[in-house]
Amino acid sequence: MWTKASDPRVFVARRARLAEQLKGPALLVAGQSRPRNFQHNRFPFRAESHFLYLVGRSIEGAALLVSAAGATLFAPPADPEAELWTGAMPTLDDLSRELQLEVRPITDLQGASDIAALPPQDLETALWLSERLDRDLEPGGGVELEGADATLAEAMIALRLCHDAAAIEQLREAALVTGRAHLAGMRATRPGDREAMVRAAMEAQIIAAGCSTAYGSIVTVHGEVLHNERHDGVLGASDLLLADVGAETPEGFAGDVTRVWPVSGRFSATQRAAYEVVLASQRAAIAAVAPGVRYLDVHRAAGLALVEGLIGLGILRGSAPELYARGAAALFFPHGVGHLLGIDVHDLEDLGDRAGYQPGRARPSAPGDRYLRLDRDLSPGMCVTIEPGFYQIPRILSRPSEVGELEAALDRAELARFADVRGIRIEDDVLVTATGSEVLSLAVPKSIDDVEHAMLG
Questions:
Q1: Distance from CA of residue 252 to its chain's centroid?
Q2: Integer distance in angstroms from the first to the last C-alpha of the chain?
Q3: Are 386 and 289 spatial neighbours (Cβ–Cβ below 8 Å)?
Q4: What is d(CA 46, CA 286) in angstroms, rounded to the nearest whole number?
Q5: Which pLDDT score, from 0 to 100, does residue 42 have?
Q6: DSSP designation for 76
Q7: CA distance 207 to 71
Q8: Closest by Cα among 243, 240, 230, 238 to 198
Q9: Pairing state of beta strands 428-432 and 26-29?
Q10: Burial class (CB in 10 A: 0-12, 13-18, 19+), 192
Q11: Is CATH 3.40.350.10 correct for 8-160?
Q12: Which pick of 238, 265, 422, 456 has the fewest CB atoms within 10 Å?
C-alpha cells in the first residue's frame, strides 16, 4: 500500500480559511535542512508543520505569504548544477501548477516588520526569518507571542485543532501503516535477537508505504524507561517488549501506537494480570472520549481504573477513589494519558500550552497530572492518543520523597511478584466523532489472545 496524497484543492481551502481569520499578512516558512557532519551530508528535510499543513509539500527554503489578497509561495528556483546529484527538480512553474498556487522566486520576497510569523524550531531558520522581518524571533516552542503573531497562532490552532476530511483520511492512512508495522514487529520477535531487529522489521513496513517514522521508534525490553530510544538490548525469553512506533505520511500526519508483547509468544501469569489492568484502564479512558468531555476527565478515568486494578492485584490497599485522590496512580503511571495527534505526533505543541490548554486553564501541579499535555473540552474532528501505562520506575518507587505517605498503602511483597513486568503501555489513536469516538488504530492486535495469536502468524 502506497500512501495517498491529498487533492491540491484541500490546501487551497485551508489557506483561504486562514486568510479569513487574519487581520494582516502572515509568513509561514518551510525551514532549512541541517548538515550532519559536513555541508553535503544532511539530515532528511521535513518542512515546518504549519507550512506543511498549508502547502502539503516539504520545499526546503520556501516561505508562504498569506493575506486577504490570497497566498503566494516564494521558493528557491531549481538549481541546474544540482541535477547531477539529485535529478531534475520541479521548476517554479511546475510547482505553481501542481499546488494551484502563485509561486515566485524566493528573492522576490520582501520582508517587513508588520508581517506576522511563528517561531521556527531551529536557530538557522529563525535567523533567516528574523533578517527578513527585521525583528528577532527566537527558535523553539513555548515562546510568548504578542500582537499579530499571537493572532496567527490562534488562527492556526483554530484551523488545525479539529481536522478536516482530508486530514482525517491522512490520519487513517498513518494508522493503517502503523498497524502493519506493529504486526510485523510481533511476528519478527525472537528470544536472543536484539531490539534493533524488531525495530528494523517495523520500520521496513513504514518505509515501504512511502512514509517515514513520526518520531524516534521506541522498541525496548525496558518499558519502564518512558522514551527509551536505545535498541541494543537482547530479547530475553521472559521479557516483555514495548514498541511505541508510528508512521508519518508525506503530508506530515502521524500515527502513534504502543503495544506490548511477550518475547516468548506467551504472557506469564503475572504479565497477563498486569496487562489486563492496563488494558482495562485504557478502555475506561476510551469509553470516556466524546464531544464536550474534558480531556482531564479522560485522564482521570484512566488513572482511577488503574488504581482499581492494582487493588485487585493486591499491589495497593484501600479505597480506589481515596487512593487516586492521594496520587497513587502516579506511582505507576506518572505521565498524562495522551495528547493531540495530527500533522505532528504531538500536534501543535510548538505553540505550547496555548494550544494544549483551553483558555482559563493551567497545568495542574499534582503528581500524575503535571505532565498532561492537553486539557481542552473535546470536539468532533479532534484526534487524541489514549496511552495509560504501568511502570516499575526505580526513580519513583525507591525514593521515600516520591512515595511519601502512600507507602502504607503499597504492598511491596506483592509488587515483587511482578518482577517480570518492567513497563506496559497500551496506546491507540482516537478520533472524536459527533456521537462519541472512533479508534483509528483498532486493527492493531491488543487483547492478550489477539497479541499471542498475531505472534504465531
A1: 11
A2: 20
A3: yes
A4: 32
A5: 86
A6: P
A7: 33
A8: 243
A9: unpaired
A10: exposed
A11: yes
A12: 456
CB-based contact 292:378 (threshold 8 Å): yes
Q: What's domain 165-456's superfamily in CATH?
A: Creatinase/methionine aminopeptidase superfamily (3.90.230.10)
The whole-angstrom separation of Cα 352 and Cα 107 is 32
pLDDT at 368: 84
- Alpha carbon dihedral 158, 427, 442, 292, in 10-degree steps, equals -40
Contacts of 184 (CB under 8 A, 6+ apart): 201, 202, 204, 205
H runs (alpha helix) in 189-220: 195-208
Residue spans of the domains in the chain: they are 8-160, 165-456
- The C-alpha angle with vertex 151 and arms to 33 and 248, in degrees rounded to 5, equals 35
Neighbouring residues of 288: CB distance < 8 A, sequence distance ≥ 6 = 297, 298, 301
Closest CA to 338 of 408, 264, 404, 254: 254
- List the 428-432 sheet strands across, edge first: 383-386, 428-432, 437-439
pLDDT at 85: 86
| 3-state class (DSSP) for residue 383 | strand
For the four alpha carbons of 303, 305, 306 and 307, in that order, the dihedral sign comes to: positive
- Of residues 249, 251, 268, the one with CA closest to residue 260: 268
CA 421 remoteness from chain centre: 25
Cα torsion angle, 236, 283, 351, 34, sign: positive
The whole-angstrom separation of Cα 78 and Cα 90 is 7
Q: What is the pTM of this model?
A: 0.96
List the grid coordinates of 287: 469509553
Quick one: cell of 62? Answer: 520556501
Give one DSSP letter per residue of 224-281, joined into a string.
Answer: TSTT------B--TT-EEEEEE-EE-TT--B--EEEEEETTSS--HHHHHHHHHHHHH
